[in-house]
Amino acid sequence: MPIDSAFVGLYRSTARELFVPYVSPQENGYRTDVRWVAVRDGQGRGVAFLGMHVIGFSALRYAIEDMTQKSRGTTHPVDLVEKDFVEVNIDYQQTGVGGEDSWGARPYPQYTLDPRDYSYAFRMRPLETGDDPMPLSKERFVLE
Description:
There is one protein chain. This protein is mostly beta strands. The chain has two helices and four strands, in the order αββββα. The chain has a single domain, classed as Beta-galactosidase, Chain A, domain 5 (Distorted Sandwich), CATH 2.70.98.10. The chain is 6% helix and 25% strand. The protein has helices spanning 15-18, 133-137; strands at 31-40, 46-60, 87-91, 122-127. Strands 1, 2, 3 and 4 form a four-stranded antiparallel β-sheet that branches. The model has no long low-confidence stretch (mean pLDDT 87). The chain is globular.
């Protein structure tokens, strides 16, 4: 039986709100099956990422390297320092993070990306204050 976490819709959040303060920091806040995402500054300027198909993304106030640990439990959320930028990752998909336990079980097969060639495409479009990415997301996407 498929499990859904959210209905198709238009969602708004901040990079701070996407962060999950796990006791042992790791990549987090990832969103899947996204048609487009816009990242804006306080004045409304930014960039839109528009997937040819659906994409995955994360947008955090920390660099991935800041959450990479030599061994689990050597860093905690209090050790992280927010950056003056938002690090955005655009992906095709990610393998799930675990199975039935949190101490080493592999993700279920349906949440695992098998080793093979994958491809995906997205467009990046600059956004000015007031620009609406929704019409951009409906434009025909052609690879050349």
